[in-house]
Design goal:
The chain is an alpha/beta fold. The chain has helices at 27-30, 106-110, 112-120, 146-151, 179-186, 192-195, 236-242, 257-260, 268-289, 306-313, 319-337, 350-353, 386-400; strands spanning 5-6, 11-15, 22-26, 31-32, 39-43, 48-49, 53-57, 65-74, 80-91, 98-104, 124-127, 130-131, 137-140, 165-167, 175-178, 208-211, 214-219, 222-225, 232-234, 250-254, 294-298, 345-348, 362-365, 375-378. The chain folds into 2 domains: 5-128 and 245-400, Rossmann fold, CATH 3.40.50.1110; 146-236, no CATH class.
Length: 403
């Protein structure tokens, strides 16, 4: 008998109020491992088992309600190999504003799922240092991982310091930041993906900054070397104060793709342990600043087709390796953060809610030079298209509606 793990949090929130909406939980995403030969039985008063997913739609979303959802997995011999009971909570969009920082990598850099979440939940307000349209604010940086946010300590020509890393000896107001970063925001020839979206801020007299690894201070309008010796550390509270972001109700964390997509099986356990340790340190820093903030960890979504992984990485990395790492990361996140809502820690089941096929742009390719037919596949190895971002937005909006 092959063991199977059901990667779902104890509470699954669904945003109600729109009878035209639907919420799906895709079996192949949240079962680890998954086989087509297995039968997933769903016992529930509401929804439909559609073979590839459980779907909740229509009248079931008309009003607030809580109900149990039982999942049973049977192998091809009729042996039950997994069972889990979770609570489904249908939530309505609140009337009061929910000021939320979205923190992550390229998917948050894009902001598409955040825009959809705002469309579904009009009282959701995004908060952050970066915006491309003056409407959706975020802390999303393409290509960044948790190590980048915590360990970018030296500002060299090819790497800026993390804006969340501050001198321990200084307050948030006293530290201007990385001079290389601020200069690049003003450079008309800067790399747009790295430096667009930031409004330049003039330094104040007496502020400190980092200049090529050395501390300097603004004195009489010029940056001068200082004798200040200090270590640096990740500090969420100083970041909030530095950029005058005000009171937050929630922080949504969606990250993991850059942390784990190039990790081999042999290094997976250690890499995931390090990844979760960073997530714990992030949560602790947020709650040291304000214990009332809801920290929402989104279970990271799976990637596109094996074909696209080959197109991007040649023979180096595979879709199955990425799936292995993402699902095991989700397992570790559930073990660490589930059932801690009394500590203002929440889990969003984004992993389970994104269509493994149709969430991605669809393209065709010829399987060999002699074939007169083309196969359909996903158009990206990691990043979903609009459909996927809408499902991601539905998932996170439901959690934010109920914090």
């Amino acid at each position: 008998m092959t063991p199977c793990t059901i990667l779902l949090p104890s509470v699954i929130r669904v945003l109600g109020g729109n009878p035209q909406a639907a919420f799906n939980l895709y079996f192949s995403n949240f079962l680890m491992p998954f086989r087509n030969e297995w039968d997933v039985q769903v016992w529930c008063e509401y929804g439909q088992n559609r073979g590839d997913c459980w779907c909740l739609e229509g009248k079931a979303l008309a009003e607030e309600k809580n109900f149990p959802l039982t999942l049973l997995v049977y192998d091809e011999w009729g042996e039950k190999i997994a069972e889990r009971v979770v609570t489904v909570k249908v939530c309505m969009a609140p009337e009061a504003s929910v000021r939320t920082m979205f923190f992550g990598d390229s998917m948050t850099h894009s902001g598409s799922y955040m825009q959809h979440a705002c469309d579904r939940m009009p009282t959701l307000q995004t908060v952050g240092f970066r915006t491309f349209d003056g409407k959706i604010y975020r802390e999303g940086r393409g290509g960044w991982d948790m190590f980048s946010y915590f360990e970018h300590r030296l500002a060299k020509t090819d790497r800026i310091m993390s804006p969340f890393v501050f001198p321990i000896a200084l307050s948030g107001e006293e530290y201007y930041g990385d001079l290389l970063f601020w200069r690049e925001t003003q450079n008309p020839n800067h790399h747009p993906y790295a430096y667009d979206g930031y409004a330049y801020e003039e330094p104040k007299e007496g502020q400190y900054a980092l200049s090529e690894g050395e501390m300097v201070q603004l004195r009489h309008g010029t940056w001068q070397k200082t004798e200040l010796q200090t270590e640096f550390a990740f500090d969420f509270g100083k970041f909030i104060v530095r950029h005058n972001l005000g009171k937050l109700h929630a922080v949504s964390v969606l990250i993991g793709a850059n942390d784990l997509q190039k990790i081999r099986y042999e290094q997976s356990s250690a890499a995931i342990e390090s990844f979760v340790n960073y997530l714990q340190a992030f949560e602790q820093s947020v709650h040291a600043h304000d214990p009332e903030i809801a920290v929402v960890f989104n279970l990271p979504i799976l990637g596109g087709s094996a074909y696209q992984w080959g197109r991007v990485y040649g023979s180096a990395y595979t879709e199955k390796l990425y799936r292995f790492n993402m699902q095991h990361a989700a397992q570790a996140m559930l073990a660490t953060f589930d059932n801690r809502e009394d500590e203002r820690i929440f889990i969003c089941p984004m992993l389970a809610a994104v269509d493994p096929v149709n969430a991605f742009k669809r393209v065709t390719y010829r399987p060999n030079p002699y074939a007169d037919v083309e196969r359909e596949t996903s158009g990206d190895w990691i990043h979903p298209a609009k459909v996927g971002h809408c499902q991601m937005g539905d998932a996170i909006a439901a959690v934010l509606a109920d914090i």
